[in-house]
Amino acid sequence: MSQRETDLSFLRRCVELAREALVAGDEPFGSLLVDGAGEVRFEDRNRVRDGDETRHPEFEIAKWSASHLTADERAAATVYTSGEHCPMCSAAHGWMGLGRIVYAVSSAQLSAWRAEWGLPAGPVLPLPVQDVAPGVPVDGPAPELEDAMRELHRRKAGLQGTSSA
Ligand SMILES: [Zn+2]
Fold first, then answer.
1. Ligand 1 center from residue 33 Cα (angstroms)
2. What percent of the chain lies above the pLDDT cut of 90?
3. What predicted TM-score, i.e. pTM, was given to this entire model?
């Protein structure tokens, strides 16, 4: 598989995790940590339903990496995520010295959708990862997954969906 196909396959798993989160009543975000050998070592999804608004999967990944990976392993790892890291998660990723980030949809895309749907802006600025952690290589968005993610966010917003998913 090419790097791009490999990236898309991991991103598809993130979209599945985001869908699981939505079904469970959480927000539709899911993420994976893949080590330098290409193995998925940890995955999680958003879990804010019970009131802890910091339970983002990318933040959990950064905390998990502190006790499970060496500094070299962290630098060689890639974090895949359905939605670009928020500033909190970008900072945690940067502080832990984790490697590349690959996202399906950007914070700018998500903000634009929310505005289009008449939803208020969130309490934290939707800064790009590299405005917070400039040393982190970042790839995204993946246009192949845009429709699927837009639909999940639209459902979370309680708007009428366009597909039967
Ligand atoms: Zn976050």
1. 15
2. 94
3. 0.95
